[in-house]
Amino acid sequence: MNKRWIGMLALLGFFFCAGVQPSMAGLSEACFTPLCSATADQGVDGQQYYVVKHGDTLWDIADRYQMSAKKLMEKNGLNEKSILKIGDRLLIPGKTGKVHTISQGETLWAIARQYGIPLQAVLAANPGIKPQTLNTGQRLIIPDRDSSRLISAASQSSRSMFPSELMVWPLLGTITSPYGWRQSGFHHGIDIAAELGSPIRAASGGDVCYAGYKAVYGRTIVIKHGDGMQTVYAHLDKILVSENQAVQAGQVIATVGITGRTTGPHLHFEVRQDDKTQNPLQYLRK
Length: 286
Prior knowledge:
Blueprint: H1 2-18, E1 40-42, E2 48-51, H2 58-64, H3 69-76, E3 89-91, E4 98-101, H4 108-115, H5 119-125, E5 139-142, H6 148-156, E6 174-177, E7 180-182, E8 185-187, E9 190-193, E10 199-201, E11 206-214, E12 218-226, E13 229-239, E14 246-247, E15 252-256, E16 266-273, E17 276-278
Antiparallel strand pairs: 1-2, 2-3, 4-5, 6-9, 7-8, 9-16, 10-15, 11-12, 11-14, 12-13, 13-15, 13-16, 16-17
């Protein structure tokens, strides 16, 4: 009996020294170490965020800001099994905004469109985020649409060269072949059918980096939008711009043709990010 009591007391002493609390049991397997000093920062929109440090737990962070762990988790799209990563930014409840967890295949442009806010607003709320290197499971701070300070910051950062808004449709017509796999292989863009000679417009502002003839593509225009993004317009009849020319979104740059490998008049339209094709429908206005 004495040995049993001694063993129990020793076990309790171990847990007491280790600082394990019942509410932290779900995180104990992640080998969290004692909490470091809290660090909060103020975003450009006036929202308050907490930057996760080594050893942080949701319960400790919630306790420091005098709130329930449940409220903190709900505000940041987390649960009891979530593992914090050093450098994560948590939105502190009481301020405006929400958190979006990136799903496979999502783009920053599509996320901005989903919440009805400018791309620059998302970038301003998430310093250091790169649109071309999003990771599944990564969390983004989504500011409220009426955040005037954030909109002001987005306006000031509009000098960024990549498109801050959704692209305009280069041609009005019927999509006869979508992006993705088809019987003849992978289709790297979308085909939009229209009458021969119909005007084709630049989907976004940028500089023409290619205007000429390519095998299979026929007469082609490539526009560079900055930050590794390009749009491609193929099977053209007439090319109305020249290389190194600056164009604006919606500007007529060509007409629909049947050049290259094609079975009828249409535009083959591609969106490329760092030389990798993307689904154009994720970038075009609905």
